[in-house]
UniProtKB/TrEMBL annotation:
This is Acyltransferase 3. GO terms for biological process: polysaccharide biosynthetic process. The chain crosses the membrane at residues 7-26, 38-58, 79-99, 111-132, 139-158, 170-192, 199-215, 235-254, 274-292, 298-318. Coiled coil: none annotated. The lineage of its organism: Bacteria, Pseudomonadati, Thermodesulfobacteriota, Desulfovibrionia, Desulfovibrionales. InterPro entries: Acyl_transf_3_dom, Acyltransferase_3. GO terms for cellular component: membrane. One of its GO terms (molecular function) is acyltransferase activity, transferring groups other than amino-acyl groups. Residues 6-318 form the Acyltransferase domain.
Length: 344
């Protein structure tokens, strides 16, 4: 791959394709091993943390201090124009949306829960940035301690599981993964000679798939590991493996930039992963509507893949249109250097 941006886009493009296919199966043909798409969201949190850290670091290198209003304005411009377009389309299709969904404020079972969760990460990003810049890798045990204290407190209080706050059934785990991504630039600043990076990516991906399976409703009891038992909070060891495998894959891909299968296609998907995330559910519902629910899965997959470029083209038009609109409303517009920090 020619750049770290392409490496990140490849990760996002591959994951958004798997998520879209997973939603077609899970929403229309629920059964054994159809829950896998949700697991791939972990890559978006890590990749987003990596991109946001670099964006904030670039601001600090220039004259003056970090401009927080400008940072939040860019995040707002990046996220909400496309989201509000999705919101209007969803309302026209009679989806149950409320006022709290207009600004991604719903606490329980929001329709596009990842965007609600990434907003939490954006809000805390400057604080995490300054902590990581000051403590370096010493911030990792601090983050682990905070994650434990929050979960111990919430479990003691008996708070229910909420996906947007409890990814993988761990409260604020999405923010922890985001912070892990923000730690990657420190690791990447050291020169490494990674031998056979594609092989390492495949091995780490195998560990990720195993961890994903064992933290899902479809887990295999024969492969279960004992929990790390802490007071008031027990941690599934596979969640630790999941975190390490996702971070390792992102690190190897960004550091070594290996040539990967379907590279140009997945990089292109990654460039438009935000609108693809928002609008893919409409696409998969259309596929199922025209095919019905009597076909074998291979037929659905063939049609899903064949017409996916149509969805991609529409998403490209929507993203460029949203960028153009922001440019018209604000002379600075959306900086292309900080685009696509998660799915997008």
């Amino acid at each position: 791959m020619r750049s770290t941006r392409e490496a990140v886009d490849y990760i996002k493009g591959f994951c958004i394709f798997i998520i879209a296919w997973g939603h077609l199966l899970y929403n229309n043909f629920p059964g054994k091993f159809t829950y896998f798409g949700n697991q791939f969201v972990a890559f978006f949190f890590v990749a987003s943390g990596y991109g946001i850290f670099l964006s904030l670091a670039r601001q600090c290198e220039g004259p003056g201090k970090l401009n927080l209003p400008a940072f939040y304005k860019r995040r707002f411009q990046r996220l909400f124009p496309l989201y509000w377009l999705w919101f209007v389309v969803a309302l026209s299709l009679s989806q149950p949306l409320g006022w709290q969904d207009l600004f991604l404020l719903r606490m329980y079972d929001p329709p596009v829960w990842f965007l609600n969760a990434i907003v939490h990460c954006y809000l805390l990003a400057p604080l995490l940035f300054f902590m990581i810049r000051r403590l370096k890798w010493g911030s990792l045990p601090v983050l682990c301690l905070l994650l434990y204290l929050v979960n111990a407190a919430f479990r003691t209080l008996g708070l229910p599981d909420m996906l947007v706050y409890g990814f993988r059934k761990i409260y604020l785990f999405h923010i922890f993964l985001f912070a892990v991504g923000m730690l990657l630039p420190s690791l990447l600043s050291i020169a490494y000679d990674i031998k056979r990076p594609k092989t390492l990516v495949v091995l780490c991906f195998g560990l990720f798939l195993l961890a994903s399976l064992q933290t899902s409703p479809d887990r295999l009891e024969a492969l279960d590991l004992s929990y790390v038992k802490l007071p008031y909070f027990h941690i599934n060891k596979y969640n630790i493996i999941l975190t390490l495998s996702v971070a390792a894959i992102c690190f190897i891909m960004i550091q070594a930039r290996p040539a990967m299968p379907l590279q140009r296609t997945m990089v292109l998907f990654g460039k438009y992963s935000l609108p693809l995330y928002l609008f893919h559910t409409f696409y998969v519902n259309i596929v199922v509507f025209f095919l019905g629910k009597e076909q074998v899965q291979l037929v659905y997959f063939a049609v899903f893949v064949f017409f996916f470029p149509v969805l991609l083209g529409l998403c490209a038009v929507l993203q460029h249109g949203a960028n153009r609109l922001c440019s018209l409303l604000d002379n600075s517009g959306i900086q292309t250097a900080v685009r696509k920090v998660l799915p997008g």
